[in-house]
Amino acid sequence: MLNYDIPSPNDINNVADWAEFYIAYLEESLSKAALSSAIEQSRGIEPPEDFITSVWSELEERSSKYGSSCPFNIDSLVIEPSINWKLIPDYMLCLIFALEGNPNTDAVSSAASGKLFERVSQVAVKNYIQGDCIVYGHPHEQTVSSIANTLLKEKFNQLPPSYRKDRNLDLFAWKSFDDERAGQIIMLVQCAAGHNWKTKLTELSLRAWELYIHFAAAPIKGFTIPNIISNVEDLLEHSRDAGVLFDRTRLYKNICVTEREDDFITELNTWCDTRLLEILN
Question: What is the per-residue pLDDT across 187-209, written as a single tens digit (0 to 9) for each?
Fold first, then answer.
């Protein structure tokens, strides 16, 4: 049995996240009965049967959203892993964020962890738009003027005030026509790895960035999180605030079909191993 209590055993989504984590980490199946026992251990009382049914329905819904490359298989009684997470450590990284948030720990800072999530998001967003994507400020500081004039081929207007820093922007993504001209699909993306992601949905201001860069065609907003949003109404509401929303299923589907450098895979595995040591001991 996993030495890790469910952080929020009364929350269906959190229990479903824990179930995904359990089977991925242990590389073994989890039955409804075993899940019920884990919930009882975490909350102190046996969960009602309809709660287990709701968690199972959530996992089945997630399976359909993950699609053909779903990281697990599920039937009426058992859920089991279908991948080795070490080969797609981005998945484990997202599960850890979903369960634990993004705190400063003895081993890693929240800033460094957040930057790693931005790089994971970069891979997914780039594949989704089938264009280009950069992390703003990684691996080195870029100027807004160089991004506008050199990368985007748009017109630079002015710098953001120094006290506003990156203006809550984490990724620039674009799909050019390869003709050295402005006017293209451009997505400005914010990445939120912590539990407080709902408070960030409205932070990124397109109006502000349109002061700094003269976009020939209006840009669109994007937002990435390590969690899953299964409720349709919630997705609609959050998308109205944050733009194109990449939850864990959308990140995973775009990452698992993308080839990444071995060094990045190693870096992700190292981070996951470090955090796993912290949360499982």
Answer: 999 999 999 999 999 999 999 99
